[in-house]
Amino acid sequence: MNRNSQLSDVLHVLLHMAQADAPLTSETLAGAMGTHPVALRRLLSGLRAAGFVGSEKGHGGGWVISCPLERITLRDIHEALGAPALVQLGFRDDRPSCLVAQAVNEALGAAVQQAEDVLLERLGHITLAALAHDFAHRRPAGRAPATPCLNESARHVPRH
């Protein structure tokens, strides 16, 4: 089963953007995700519509975070991505008139909904600022931030 990694991917990109002192290009950020710049722009379009990121074209342009990290929760980001399913549990629906399938699907559906409600509640309490703080504490003391997931063209960008 394929897992949807959009939320994880976009959080990864946002943390790179948060530590950058200048806009980061789609190419640079796509390199951090291991994807194509067009896919990255598509992914960030919902965040731009929500006012969380902005972009400028041309020389010196790129993507930036456009509001304080303390104001953006993981739930906000999830919703800006179109609120994809958080719990991906398959249901047998090839025989909708089957009473067994109806009972199983109802029980599983209720459990999935409860799990998603709890997860959304928790995501609503985690901010990008908290993730950035956690990331900063994972770096060895006295060492510049590690950027192994950014491609070489991004390494010239100063980081805090």
Task: Explain how this protein is built.
This is Rrf2 family transcriptional regulator, group III. InterPro entries: Tscrpt_reg_Rrf2, WH-like_DNA-bd_sf, WH_DNA-bd_sf. It comes from Piscinibacter sakaiensis (Ideonella sakaiensis). There is one protein chain. With 160 residues, the protein is mainly alpha-helical. The protein has a domain at 6-88 and 127-154: Winged helix-like DNA-binding domain superfamily/Winged helix DNA-binding domain (Arc Repressor Mutant, subunit A, Orthogonal Bundle). 49% of the residues lie in helices and 5% in strands. It has helices at residues 6-19, 26-33, 37-49, 74-80, 99-123, 128-138, and strands at 53-56, 62-65. A two-stranded antiparallel sheet has the order 1-2. It is elongated. The relative contact order is 0.19. Residues 151-160 have low confidence and may be disordered.
Brief description of this entry?
With 160 residues, this protein is mainly alpha-helical.
Q: Specify the CATH architecture of the domain at 6-88 and 127-154.
A: Orthogonal Bundle
List segments where confidence is low: pLDDT < 50 over at least 5 consecutive residues.
151-160
Termini Cα gap:
38 Å
Instruction: Give the amount of beta strand, in percent.
Output: 5-15%
Written as H for each helix and E for each strand, in order along the chain, the element string is HHHEEHHH
Annotation, overall tally of beta strands: 2
Label the overall shape.
elongated
Structural class: mainly alpha
Bin the helical content: 40-55%
Reading off the top of the CATH hierarchy, the class of the domain at 6-88 and 127-154 is best stated as: Mainly Alpha
Question: In the CATH hierarchy, what is the superfamily of the domain at 6-88 and 127-154?
Answer: Winged helix-like DNA-binding domain superfamily/Winged helix DNA-binding domain
Mean pLDDT equals: 85
The CATH topology of the domain at 6-88 and 127-154:
Arc Repressor Mutant, subunit A
Biggest sheet, in brief? Answer: 2 strands, antiparallel
Strand order of the largest sheet: 1-2
- The radius of gyration over CA amounts to 19 Å
Tally of DSSP helical segments: 6
